[in-house]
Amino acid sequence: MRQAGRSLPEYKAVRGEGSILQAIQDPERAAEITLQPVRRYGVDAAILFSDIVTPIFASGFGIDITPGVGPTCEQPFASAADLDRFRPLDPSVDLDFQAKTIEILMGELDVPLIGFAGAPFTVASYLVEGRPTRDFAKVKALMTGDPKLWHQLADLVADSAIATLRAQVEAGAKAVQLFDSWAGALHPAHYREYVLPHSEKVLAAVADLGVPRTHFGINSGELLPLIAGAGCEVVGVDWRTPLSVARERTGGTYALQGNLDPALVLAPWEVLEAEVLRILDDNAGHPGYIFNLGHGVLPMTNPEQLERVVELVHRVGTARGPAPDNAANAST
Ligand code: CP3
Question: Which residues contact 216 (CB under 8 A, 6 or more apart)?
Answer without folding.
Answer: 177, 178, 179, 180, 181, 227, 235, 236, 257
